[in-house]
Amino acid sequence: MSSVPGADQIIIFDTTMRDGEQSPGASMNLSEKLRIAHILEEMRVDVIEAGFPIASDGDFEAVNEVAKLVKNSKVCGLARSSKIDIERCAEAVKPAVQPRIHTFISTSPLHMKYKLQMEPEDVHAAVINSVTYARNFTDDVEWSCEDGSRTEHDFMCRTVESAIEAGAATINIPDTVGYAVPDEFGGLIEMLFNRVPNIDKAIISVHCHNDLGLAVANSLAAVKAGARQVECTINGLGERAGNAAMEEIIMALKTRHDSMPYTSNIKTEYITKASRLVSTVTGFTVQPNKAIVGANAFAHESGIHQDGMLKNAQTYEIMTPESVGLTESKLVMGKHSGRHAFRQKLAELGYDLGDNAIQDAFKRFKDLADLKKDVYDEDIIALVDDTVVRSNDTIQLVSLEVLCGTEHRPPRASLSLCIDGEEKSTETSGDGPVDAIFTGIKVLTSQTPHLQLFQVQAVTQGTDAQAEVTVRLEENGKTVNGQGADTDTMVAAARAYINALNKLLIKRKKTIPAALST
Ligand code: KIV
Ligand code: ZN
After folding, report:
1. Are 245 and 286 in contact (CB under 8 A)?
2. Which pTM was predicted?
3. Which of the two ends of the chain, N or C, has the fewest CB atoms closer than 10 A to its terminal CB?
4. 8-29, pLDDT tens digit by residue?
5. How far is CA 375 from CA 368, 370, 495, in A?
6. CATH topology of domain 393-508
7. Range in 113-127, 303-317, 374-388, 481-495 the model is least confident about
8. In a mutational test of the pocket of ligand 1, which residue from 22, 86, 176 has the highest number of ligand atoms less than 8 Å from its CB?
9. What is the CATH number of domain 11-282?
């Protein structure tokens, strides 16, 4: 259970599954959200914002299931100021040990006039009514003034004071459009502490977007000014340029404790695992030079740096790779490794799979070990993720053969799929081998969604590395990401496309009301 924070304790509020998922293309399905929630809880994130329950049945279900799963973090859902939003949110978070309702309304002149088309007095009344109403369902209500950084100070003070009076225990000040700069944003928080009479009755939170690349700097400036909750996301995922990256906030606080004497509950060794999972699920690869979680964040290329590192790692390393959970790629097992050792390895890597899933993964591990001399932790992770993501698929790949190269024009694919238990086959050609495969899948399934992204990454180094492919499909404005991994890039591509199609089929079944803007 998260403890009541001390004066220098920073509450970490993760919104990867809410604001993060709002970023175009970053959709996550229920089982993916549950896996992310599990890691966030293991990391000791204080508050997990799992979604926006009114937005769709899928969002409601995800918040509800996360609320049932998570025991040690608070589980939060987002709601606009209307009763129906708040009721839906309350229902979704109800099973949580520590449920939170996060309600918001815009307070800037621009948003009130054009987006809400409401007078400030009506917005003020909506603040009081929404917080009061939300308090009927839980003691833990957070209120946000959307577009806070462009809100007039007098009006912000009035609304913040009223929200606290109405029972909000947390007041969140968002820099919704990533417009603020650090001195100014810290000054805004300081202004609230100086002017709002009941400010000591609430925790002040900040939620910064990264449009000018200042989300982390603004959040830390706010912490210095008295904010004690930071809203952030893994890998900085989020609307447009994203939100403040959790890993950067956490490691900045930890590494520069001398300058920022604040602590958090986060177990930093889980950072790399969380980053990889979010990247795999969303298909949003992390840039190599990204702070903390980029592939090069702890790599030393130049001779001078390598020489310094050998003499003393602190010459060029301000934090250790181990502190963020980055360990050397380990050779795990070969083709003679048994089921018991495989099970142990899975447990070590943090997987808790049922017997059937272990059996499937073990079979694939044996196949991989036959093909690939060295099997690393990363291989096992890719293979297990691949097995887990497709365990419930109604469309499955049975076989694939591709003819391509200088002698085979146009490239051809012979493909067999099992669709709802029935095996179907076809042979198709295309502009390239991937095009031929995808055309074949479309022919067999009669599905023609728009392909938005096709991305290939090597799981480890070497020409025998597994390829991890992400495919993003779009249909009527809704996107899904599919993943596939295999030593054969074409097989991985087929698996990824099929996985995305399966997700699309599930998504279609769920009702999605008119688009909502936050
Ligand atoms: O950016 C924003 O203002 C938000 C609020 C809903 C907190 O995401
Ligand atoms: Zn936001």
Report:
1. no
2. 0.86
3. N
4. 999 999 999 999 999 888 889 8
5. 8, 10, 21
6. Double Stranded RNA Binding Domain (3.30.160)
7. 303-317
8. 176
9. 3.20.20.70
